[in-house]
Here is the input.
Amino acid sequence: MTWDELRALRHKNVHIVGLSGVEGSAVADFLIRQGFTNLTAHDFRPAEDFDRNFRLVHVGMKPEEREAALQRLKQAPLRICFQDHYLDGILEADAIFATQAWFIYQCNLPKLRQAKDKGIPFYSMTMLYFDLAPCPILAVTGTNGKSTTSKLLSEIVAASGRRTYYAGNERRSVQVLDRLEEMRPDDVLVLEVSNRQLIELERSPHVAVVTNVTPNHLDEHEGSFEKYVATKERLVRYQRPGDIAVLNYDNLITRRMAERTPGHVVYFSREVELAEGAFLRGDRLVLRRGGEERELCRAQDLLIPGEHNISNVLAAALAAFMFGVPPEVISRTVRTFRGLRHRLQLVYSVDGVRYYDDLNSTTPQATVAALKALDAPVVLIAGGEDKGLSFDEVAALAVQRCRLIILLPGRGTDRLEEALRAARRGTDCPPIQRAAALEEAVVLARTAARPGDVVLLSPACPYFFSRFYDDSDGAGFRALVRRVVVNSRPGSPRSAGATGADMKEGP
Here is the structure.
């Protein structure tokens, strides 16, 4: 879609699916700013829940920005179809803008399938970025690590002096659709791209990074890992000669994507010293190109823990290097990068116990990476819904590393507990306890943890956030640790920023 084609739709019958979500609201705001006059938006929740859900989902905005965005939508020339009238009139639309996850909700079927069969054009936020941005796009996908890698990549490029725009794929990321018109050809747009956003995308970025591919979201790909892999490959499939594909040499699936792209392929590796690319030599992160190499830093210089984060840093550093960022800028930036919220984030250290928020680890493999990154006995809080993935590896590691495992309800939790009990081989260690809510889990963790231990929230299952976690009303993990652990200490200062020799709040 060109700008002219977009503007030709200004007075057409245009529908938006998923208004209260990050993508739907960003698209609605963008189209309203472009002068669209005949917009209908759909949200399957009841009207009375719209405000609360909007505030809950848009946690990446400052409170005043979030409130302004909400009021702007409510006052816009926009017809909204809530629960009882959801998708009314959509089969008469001239164009439909759908969020990336539209096809996983039964309430969207069969009407949106019918709309596709009728030939009504479907568009997405990601398509708008790829079609309308006038500058190079650097994009990152992968089963794990894409959020950290893409954010670090954006910070490296920005540190080089290029005006850089960033849009992630999780609810803490603020979209930049409304800034497309101000972008210049010498700017840079860095995107985190999910498999859902790739399903219908037929454009590839100038620099494409694939962090890794392991089984995930198989329920969205007819249970087929091959179809999931093929979807991830779309990030590199449409590249042109002169584009760059940054691939993980240590992941066989990712390495084979070199056969699917016309772009120039370079690899990163923690395990192999490469002739060209980024790799780990001993404890040193190294860039090599054209027979010359530069050491970036030592692994222990990184502020984000874990071997998986070494891979993420290598991926981001290599992508920036191939894009032309000087090694000294890369080195300086990776040494000061503190990571993302909910990504193995240290939120408090209290009485010798460290509390880590790893909420975004919603697969068994991600929780495995978190457990491997920590160098102490763990009290693990996990659980949630079910993607049908194997819990064998995370269960085997958890029974070795954990002092206590606390599980919250869910279909995935039931399967995870089965795997844990099988991995214990008939013993009772570590104990497994159930909690009905996150606050109860934090209370149990506080009671069990000893000085030197780690309390780790790392679900290993999807949809933990929507079921048990609410940043908007103080029920987030940091707030609960503050209330349940910090403020319950005898004589403890009851303030969020209070610190002391035996109590410290994380960044």
Remarks:
- Confidence is low (pLDDT under 50) at residues 493-501.
